[in-house]
Amino acid sequence: MEIKLIKTQKALSPTQITLADYCINPYRGCEFGCLYCYSMENKNIKNIDSASEIGVKINIEEVLRRQLRTINPKRVLLGSTTECFQYIDVKYRLSEKILKTLNEFKTPYTILTKSHLIKDYLPLISENTKNKIYFTLNSAPISLLERKAPAQEQRLETIAQIIRRNINLRIHVGPFIPYVSGLKDLLEILPSGVKEVDMELYHHKMGNYEEILKIIAKNLGKEIESKISSVYATEGAYLEFTRQLKNDLIVLKNNYRNISFFLIVPDFNMFYNKKMDYESKVR
Ligand code: SF4
Q1: pTM (2 decimals)?
Q2: SS3 category, 100
């Protein structure tokens, strides 16, 4: 893996993701190398293999500090196009520096992660009760599509620690791949104390769809591959699958009355738009 040290001009960038008004990504690219990664569409990393070349924004703490003197974000999103707690962060510790700086300025943040390496920073994150972690967990076969991401057991253990620390938490089942992801099984293994779970439906323009189908056909069978293809064949089929999914979720939520469920469905023609709604509960 090639490491490039980068001097960045900006730490905080405005974001269209409705979870925050600014985002921070300390690295360019991501070692975890998920085949479904939507950040492949990001113009800054589109033309590189983001898993084999990582840019390290070595001066990000200093730049963030400077920006926070003039910008007062309502909330900052960490890790919209990279994993802040990937393995390289153990060496450079940029995420720790960012958390400390945001805490110092009393700026609340939301972290998107699937990494057990966040565990070392839970005391820092718990300093502000408005902070929140969206922790990604998925059904075991999805690991076929994640080249170096932490194993499901490591993630479950981390989730338990986040709950013990009383940090705001949402379990993010994303992407939910039809006929591969299963919410029922995941709910059975979740540590107790989880209060929010969302499911974000996979969109066929996210990551490398052809490669994903190939891997699923090879490992899970052609029948599953063809069922998935049929969901994405037409907008009508996609919407019908969405309706079924919502109905399944309504039935399921009756057994988990302490959990709020959210279903996030990208537009069929455009996988991300400003209307992506993370906050409407399934009722
Ligand atoms: S961990 Fe997140 S940012 Fe990294 S490759 Fe996977 S989806 Fe992309």
Answers
A1: 0.95
A2: helix
Q: Which atom of ligand 1 is nearest to the CA of 112?
A: 2
Which residue's CA is minimally distant from atom 3 of ligand 1? 82
Predicted confidence (pLDDT) per residue in 90-132, tens digit = 999 999 999 999 999 999 999 999 999 999 999 999 999 999 9
CA of 253 to the centre of ligand 1 (A): 28
**Contact residues of ligand 1, CB 6 A cut-off:** 30, 32-34, 37, 39, 82-83, 114, 149
Task: Map out the domains of the chain with their CATH numbers.
Answer: 2-264 (3.80.30.10)
120: number of CA atoms within 13 Å, CB side?
14
Ligand 1 nearest-atom number relative to CA 30:
4
How far is 242 from 245, CA to CA, in rounded Å? 5
φ, ψ for residue 2, nearest 5 deg: -90, 135
Residue 164: CB partners within 8 Å, gap ≥ 6? none
For 4-38, letters b (16+ CB in 10 Å) and e give eeeebeebbeebeeebbbbbbbbbbbbbbbbbbbb
Give the separation between CA 273 and CA 283, rounded to whole angstroms.
Answer: 23
Q: Write the residue with the smallest CA distance to atom 6 of ligand 1.
A: 34
pLDDT in tens, 255-267: 999 999 999 999 9
